[in-house]
Amino acid sequence: MSVIVKLSKVTKIYLSGEVSFQALKDIDLEVKKGEFLAIIGASGSGKSTMMNIIGLLDHPTSGTYKLDGHDTSRLQENTLAEIRNSKIGFVFQSFNLLARTSAIDNVSLPLIYAGVDSAERSKKAKQALEQVGLADKFSSHPNQLSGGQQQKVAIARALVNNPEIILADEPTGNLDTRSGEEVMAIFENLHKEGKTIIMITHEEDIAHHAKRKIRMKDGEIWKQ
Amino acid sequence: METINSALTAILANKLRSFLTMLGIVIGVTSVILLISLVTGLKTYITNQIQELGANLLIVIPGRIGGARSPGGVQANRLEFKDAVNLRSKLASEAQVSAAIQRNATLKFGNKLDKGVAVFGVETTYPQVISLKLTEGRFFNQSDRKVAVIGTTVKNNLFGEGKTTGQIIDVAGIKYTVIGVLGPRGAIFGIDLDNSIYIPISSSQKQFGIDRLNTIYISANSADSVKDVQQKATNLLKKRLSEDEFTVQTQEQTLSTISQVTGVLSLALGGIAAISLIVGGIGIMNIMLVSVTERTREIGLRKAVGAKPKDIRNQFLIEAITLSGLGGIIGIILGVVISFIIGRFFTTTVPWWSVILSFGFSTLVGVIFGVAPAIRASRLDPIEALRHE
């Protein structure tokens, strides 16, 4: 299996005035294509920072990040946006759906920025919603959906552009146990279909669904 | 297309807020359209009035337009009846000449009063020279003394529907016999041209004790000779008067003076109204900044799923332009409707350029005041934005 994410000696230092804070310390990490990886850590362990770097929302202070074999350190903001659009799907703890926007339009959002035409967008969005089991909720707005359903819409949105990697940041953090299990079942299916999934969590029960776990503490990976 | 849809969604999501924001632009555009339509209407009206007098008409007035002694000013008027006589005899083959003096007076008929009536003392050639039409009776001739031809307003005020010709009216203490009624002529600058009477200039001079003239009208026999007659009249008058004591003006010159005046008026009034458009633009900017803050998470999410800075910038810019453009369209509709309603009382004309100008300006206001909030949105850091509560 080819390596899709490769972090080498990645550090991240936040400066605020005179005080500096080292969020990541010399991180080396390889994630292979098709892996289902859980990153476990308490808040402040650096797991979110790492996730933002893998998701190309943030730059490392030093070290290199190769995505699918390409160094990402010199890329312009527009190129980064294109890569996020085509190769990465985000799932957030708080869903981040657009209010007053139907499920299908929420799912279509990445396709708009990919320049896909309206008919094709609608078709792909419907497929993605069917894939997460929301075939009957195409035109529902977020306020008409339960938390679990909203997160499924968000997963459909992450899937719609057929990305290489799905990055999930505490995807069950705002859900009850049953909805959480449903969401995890979807991730397991996606894993079986060959998607690379990187998930952040602080719950062991949730991390248990992943096939590989790493633990972070104080900006370092202390257990592979 | 997508951005326009999403802009409309965002605008409709906050209907009241969007409406209040647009109101500034609506009021600005409405007033620009209205003021320009009033001034343009005024210009059209005056132009028509003047053209009705005939294109061949020249007007001699005391004083110099644009000179130290402005016409109608308090400086001594040196234009005399003998100047009119002189002009008439020297220009007999190419033009008709009629002198006029004007006083305001109160008219009485029985117990009815008509105050502030313009009393014109004119010569018998007057109706031909400035193309006046009578609806009743006749104009006076050389042998008439103490007779009057009255305007429609005077007729309505004194006689109503009753008999007019042959009636004796009192003009500032002297009795005159009404022999004719003029057709309606309307108003210029709020001055009712029909609230006037015409009496023989000799009677007027005797009654009011004046020999200075307000105006000498000269009507050239052909349009081609207008310039020539103007030159000759000027030369004749120069023999007795100095150059700044009189002006001989053609209709063309009068029209161009009016064009200048209404042009400046349009600019000044339109400019004042345009200030309210700028105020409206500040309102849009304010609300767009609020909107950017409110939708920080949305911006973060859009960036995470692949929106480039320019996509975000365009989204907010188009939203601002849609707000101002919609306000502009509503303002144009309101302005046209109100000017149509006012048009039943005054002449109004909505020139097409004022519609294009005000729509263009309101859209421009959207661009100018939408750019800063849009750029702010496009520069938001996605991580910070996603964390925003």
TrEMBL record, chain A:
<dbReference type="InterPro" id="IPR027417">
    <property type="entry name" value="P-loop_NTPase"/>
</dbReference>
<dbReference type="GO" id="GO:0005886">
    <property type="term" value="C:plasma membrane"/>
</dbReference>
<dbReference type="GO" id="GO:0022857">
    <property type="term" value="F:transmembrane transporter activity"/>
</dbReference>
<feature type="domain" description="ABC transporter">
    <location>
        <begin position="5"/>
        <end position="224"/>
    </location>
</feature>
<dbReference type="InterPro" id="IPR015854">
    <property type="entry name" value="ABC_transpr_LolD-like"/>
</dbReference>
<dbReference type="InterPro" id="IPR003439">
    <property type="entry name" value="ABC_transporter-like_ATP-bd"/>
</dbReference>
<dbReference type="InterPro" id="IPR003593">
    <property type="entry name" value="AAA+_ATPase"/>
</dbReference>
<dbReference type="Pfam" id="PF00005">
    <property type="entry name" value="ABC_tran"/>
</dbReference>
<dbReference type="InterPro" id="IPR017911">
    <property type="entry name" value="MacB-like_ATP-bd"/>
</dbReference>
<keyword id="KW-0547">Nucleotide-binding</keyword>
<protein>
    <submittedName>
        <fullName>Phosphonate-transporting ATPase</fullName>
    </submittedName>
</protein>
<keyword id="KW-0067">ATP-binding</keyword>
<keyword id="KW-0813">Transport</keyword>
<dbReference type="GO" id="GO:0098796">
    <property type="term" value="C:membrane protein complex"/>
</dbReference>
<dbReference type="GO" id="GO:0016887">
    <property type="term" value="F:ATP hydrolysis activity"/>
</dbReference>
<dbReference type="GO" id="GO:0005524">
    <property type="term" value="F:ATP binding"/>
</dbReference>
<dbReference type="InterPro" id="IPR017871">
    <property type="entry name" value="ABC_transporter-like_CS"/>
</dbReference>
